[in-house]
Amino acid sequence: MMDSLVLLWVAFCLFFFLFKAQRPKNFPPGPFSLPIFGNLLQLNLENPINDLKKLRLRYGNVYSICFGSRPVVVLNGVHAVKEALVNQSVEFAGRPQDLMINHVTKNEGVVLLNHGPVWRDVRRFSLMTLRNFGLGKQSMEERILGEVSYITSHLEKCAGKSMDPQNLFHKAASNIITTVLFGTRYEHEDKFLQLFIQLFKELSKIANGPWAMIYDTFPVVRNLPLPFQKAFQKFEVLKDAVKDLISQHKMSWVPRQPRDLLDCYLDEMEKREDDSSFNESQLVTLLLDLHFAGTDTTSNTLLTTFLYLMTHPDVQERCQKEIDQVLGEKLQASFEDRHRMPYTQAMIHEAQRVANTVPLSVFHTTTKDTQLMGYDIPKGTLIIPNLSSVLNEESQWKFPHDFNPSNFLNDEGEFVKPEAFMPFSTGPRMCLGEGLARMELFLVLVTLLRHFQFIWPEDAGEPDYSTIFGATMSPKPYRMDVRLRNKRECVIQSQNTTE
Ligand code: HEM
């Protein structure tokens, strides 16, 4: 009996030491981790934000956890995030290369490309094109305003009733990015748009779910016929749809007269015949990447904004007053108008802060052995910039736990942007769609607030501000009452105020 117990104990110790996650020497501290699972069982994987917050209280702004046997460093608070992503920008600008999503996308596109010349080239091309230097005659602003007019006419039909805005915003955000990428907008009932959105949703669910975690943690299971194989199949269907689109586009493409980002890419491919950064396979994944990165993020931010505007009618009214005053009888808002709308600007930034849309950023890795705040971090370490911890950091905000545009206003009522405002992250990998997203948010919100009043339905009970965690965070589904504002009255009111 005693012999068996001793044997069992030895076996247990052996198992423990063989499979225990090893933190490197002088690595950031963190909780005790179990063999095989690391700290995964100690985190609420449905929404780990609160667990990460507790670990920060215990271990400080730079700590580590283990995903299986893989040590991961979590950065918290504005100083640690800036120290890594800005002051040591190259060292912290890598992306993991061995997760399920890397294998699905074959490390093409831009979001998941590792730091290096190909990423730099593709990022520069995408940024230049999105900055309107390459989009031909129709400006980015016109493209956005075109879609805004569809949202407005849809909401006009809903006036006097309550509606669920989720689909409307999602399809509008998707259409804005497809007009920029392919020069095409789709009717909201269009089969192609619906297939695209559905496949992205399913792919994202698998990529952020437990099966992806199992794939990433236990390499031996990767070839087994388990549910994560569906991610590979769905991505192939998406790629085939985009390949068709590219073939159709090529038929009407006139070199050096670009209509959209796809045309610009074809021009670039022609210019750089032998350049491995620019080829058709890379183009397919780049288009999918940009579409994916630009849809959920923007639509979830809009959803959060309307939730808070409805439940803070005083803030809504103050924005409307300012918008009426500045726009007067002008037919459409322009992005330039933002400089004369400090309160509305502050409201939009505050909505982005509370929306916390990409709470854990996109994971980074270290590109070489480095040091951070006295700790040693080896090359290839997975880094999680916890943006949520920055956007809610008590020492950085006047009202960290409320929805209050004053977080972005100084004593003179002017718009100011604190350094802890980083919903787009920071450093060389920061969101490359920031300009587009900011223009979209401004033009959509200003136009809708000018035309409509949004009211929390009387029978909807207490508003629920809790969020659904994912690669992008969203509010729980809700309905909103839409009322037409009396435009004539708005104009007269704004004239009276200016007089
Ligand atoms: C409110 C809307 C948006 C938010 C909050 C947001 C946020 C983010 C964040 C946090 C990252 C990770 C940065 C990092 O790794 O440090 C990111 C990356 C990225 N975003 Fe956005 N994003 C938004 C809209 C868009 C749009 C409209 C596009 C489309 C053009 C876009 C394209 C990208 C791309 C391509 C990357 C990867 C950049 C790289 O790896 O170099 N995003 N975004």
From TrEMBL:
Residues 1-21 form the signal peptide. Heme binds at residue 431. It comes from the Eukaryota. Its cofactor is heme. It holds the Pfam family p450. PANTHER family: CYTOCHROME P450 2F2-RELATED, CYTOCHROME P450 508A4-RELATED. This is Cytochrome P450 2F2-like. It comes from Albula goreensis.
